[in-house]
Amino acid sequence: MERKMLSGFSDEHIARMLKEHRGASEVADLAACLGITEDTVRRWQSEVNEEEATLEVRLRQLEGENVILKRLLAEAELDKAALKEVLRGNW
Question: What is the pTM of this model?
Fold first, then answer.
């Protein structure tokens, strides 16, 4: 869900700029480097951190769902193999 910020920068662009300048020791230095206000830098950092946290939670949920789906697939494959054996009459 890409949205335009009031500044005209996209979320992706903001995240990339902040990531490239993570080494800046102070918010004032970062703001000066990017040509924006310190308040904007702080707001952007907050938004990016919240988004990253949300993505981490979603990733954990997807990994859990993936484990369940893999287990279900393995059980289905075992059932299929057992039925093939029964049809062959090798029991």
Answer: 0.58
- Give the distance, in angstroms, between the CA of residue 6 and the centroid of all CA atoms in the same chain: 24
Tens-place pLDDT, residues 8-17:
788 888 888 8
Task: For residue 78, give both structure tokens.
Answer: 């075992």
- And the tokens for 21? 């300048």
Tokens of 87: 């049809």
All residues at 6 or more sequence positions from 37 whose CB lies less than 8 Å from its CB, including other chains: 31
Structure tokens at 86: 């029964």
Q: What is the distance between the alpha carbons of residues 15 and 69, in angstroms, rounded to a whole number?
A: 33
| Residue 4 DSSP SS3 | strand
